[in-house]
Design brief:
Elements (H helix, E strand, L loop, with lengths): L2 H9 L5 H4 L11 H17 L4 H4 L1 E3 L3 E3 L6 H9 L7 H4 L5 H14 L2 E8 L5 E8 H16 L6 E3 L5 E3 L6 H5 L7 H15 L5 H17 L1 H5 L4 H13 L15 H23 L5
Antiparallel strand pairs: 1-2, 3-4, 5-6
């Protein structure tokens, strides 16, 4: 079961009355401050379960505060994010911008770990002292929790397995984005990965997305000999006409630029990405 399917079935299994009857005040999702509120609940629950003990430390009735790997978290955040007044979330989250919120989420991903073993300190009901941790399992759990929150956001984002917040793919293109390009050629695989990240990265501009489309067009140019073997000359010409005459790869007074750049670039990105997958799968084996 894919992550989105799991989350949808878990958190959105029932469509309630106001949603069914178009009466809900947030049909497209919740605003940022409400989503941050949901995040705070998940963060506090995971903190109570020991998922941030290794990094943030814990309190003991005998030893007092036992620091974690981040002895000075304000300094650690300043060094990592170059911002102040982000920590602790329950104090500063009311003033978070979207960028602040995403920075905190990515920072926590880097420092979460699942408690594996510990010792119960019974004196004065002190509680469990966690001693060993698993970072990967902690990150996987954190990612699942955060993406369950992002499902409710009015803007479409997700936390990737590498801990980077990215724009969610357009509906129907999820498998295309996740699929590996089956060819052992760094010119193809690395450029496709870089272009995809550039296109999906939070805060990407129209110029960033245009560059991502340009990079995919360059990959197709590199694959041109294989394209020639599988397309007619007219089809091949049409394929490159999109990038060459719509303000993507060349700039002159003949370029067509009077179009909705956001929609057009999105269409071109998915079109070229799908074409690369088709060409590679049709003409090359994994061993090429």
């Amino acid at each position: 079961m894919g992550l989105d399917v799991y989350l949808s079935s878990t958190y959105m299994a029932h469509v309630y009355f106001s949603q069914r009857n178009a009466l809900n005040p947030h049909p497209d999702g919740l605003p940022l401050h409400d989503v941050i509120g949901l995040f705070l609940g998940e963060f506090e629950e995971m903190a109570n379960q020991g998922f941030f003990t290794e990094a943030l430390g814990y309190h003991c009735v005998d030893a007092g505060f036992v620091p974690g790997s981040l002895a000075d978290i304000d300094r650690a955040i300043l060094l990592a994010v170059r911002k102040k007044d982000l920590w602790p979330p329950h104090v500063f989250s009311h003033s978070y911008s979207e960028d602040d919120f995403f920075d905190v989420v990515e920072f926590l991903f880097q420092h979460v770990s699942k408690p594996v073993h510990g010792t119960l300190h019974k004196y004065d009901n002190c509680g469990m002292h966690r001693e060993t941790f698993n970072t990967r399992q902690g990150q996987d759990h954190f990612r699942k929790k955060i993406n369950a929150v992002f499902i409710h956001y009015e803007r479409r984002f997700e936390l990737s397995s590498s801990g980077e917040i990215l724009r969610k793919p357009e509906a129907g293109f999820e498998k295309l984005i996740e699929a590996d390009v089956p060819v052992r050629d760094d010119m193809v695989t690395q450029r496709v990965i870089a272009a995809t990240l550039r296109f999906r990265r939070h805060g990407s501009t129209l110029d960033d997305r245009r560059q991502a489309v340009r990079d995919l067009a360059d990959v197709l140019e590199y694959l041109k000999p294989k394209i020639k073997a599988n397309l007619t000359s007219a089809d091949e010409k049409d394929l490159f006409n999109i990038a060459n005459n719509f303000g993507i790869r060349h700039h002159n007074d003949k370029q067509k630029t009077a179009y909705d750049a956001g929609l057009w670039l999105s269409w071109m990105f998915y079109f070229y990405l799908a074409t690369i997958h088709v060409v590679v799968r049709k003409t090359a084996s994994v061993g090429d």
